[in-house]
Amino acid sequence: MDARFTDEQDEIRRTLRELLGKRCGPEELRAAVDTPAGHDTALWTTLAEQLGLPGLALPEAYGGTGCTVTELALACEETGRTLAPTPLLATAVLAAPLLLALGTDAQRAGLLPRIASGALTAALAVPGPALATALALTGRDRHGAWAGGGRAGGVQARRAEDGWRLYGQVDQVLDGHGARLLLVAAHTGGFARSRVLLFLVRGDATGVTRARQTTLDATRPQGRIQLRDAAAELLGDETVDTLPALARLGDTAAACLAAEAVGAAGRVLERTVEYVGQREQFGRPVGSFQAVKHRLADAYVQVQAARSAAYYAAWAAATEAIASDGATVTATAAAREESAGALALAQALEALRRAAAEGIQLHGGIGFTWEHEAHLYFKRAAGDELLFGPVHRLRAHAADVAHVFEEACP
User: Among the four 25, 103, 195, 367, which has the fewest Cβ within 10 Å?
Assistant: First the structure.
């Protein structure tokens, strides 16, 4: 593994940081999350047209840039620094890879170029509070029980003369209130032979009702989706095995989420160090006290360790994606790469929570106010752990995948 960034990767980071620094300050951030869309649509258009961000990890044949998960994770690190409220996670990290992996040629050709251009936003709708389980981050469910089924709720699909029809409700869909395309996980078949498939549903289709939810982290908007006899198109064909595809997506998503959390942790720590160097108490800067130095040093070490883990997870996810196209991967290497994302995400979420908590406290009275941005970083850490954690389950599942606690055979 070469830990050095390429010139192209450095350029992506530099350009994105410069643009977001100008367009996504604290005031712009608050204004964006208060809009009905929950994000700055003009900023998203700029990111798409000038930087090609939505199609960063999509092949050039579909209008993308042709980069890997590594570049996408580096972009997420920069958006995490400013908590930029964009559809990047929902569209480029969660939805687009599924379309690329499972879609038919016609579906890819019709949808991916529109995603790459920024004209089409998408969201992955997984029934119940089970996104982490569906992505195999906190456990692997080989039968799709997380999707409900029968009388257990979730979303049901039935075949109709003109295609498929969906019934049910999904409560926590990232950007689900505004995405123009929904990828809905639904049960199909009878009780005995029920299986989970993914369906494409237009956001404005008849029978689809959407509403934005009040969330802990306002910079990560979520929507509730109700489906009542909604027309749907099967993603791919009925021979597609959805659950392994979702598990592979989990590796990519975890690496990007870890990088995003590391970016946020690094930024809030920078702001805290800057503030304690200016704030004075007893005639000297607060940052000159040894106890404050120790706390910030511990947080810095934790953030740097999390950054290294996130970069490795991104490299491992990119390597796994390349290997899946033809090269042979051993079971040991596959297990190591699969657990890298969950471990990196656990470490990054802890680092962000630690850095944000220290930031709030060391900012003194102003750090506890609604007007200051420190609480937004703490809410990002807490919100991500609710969606993709908790941390101890991320670590436990990674240990199970890597067979850490299994006894060696005699």
Answer: 25
Q: What is the percent of the chain with per-residue pLDDT over 70, rounded to a whole number?
A: 90
Question: Which amino acid appears at position 138 of this protein?
Answer: T
Distance CA 323, CA 334 (A): 10
CA distance 215 to 350: 20
Beta bridge partners of 226: 169, 209
**Rounded average pLDDT over 320-335:** 52
Of the given ranges (54-63, 167-176, 360-369), which has the lowest mean pLDDT? 360-369
Q: Are 34 and 98 in contact (CB under 8 A)?
A: no
State how far the Cα of 363 lies from the Cα of 99, in Å rounded to an integer.
44
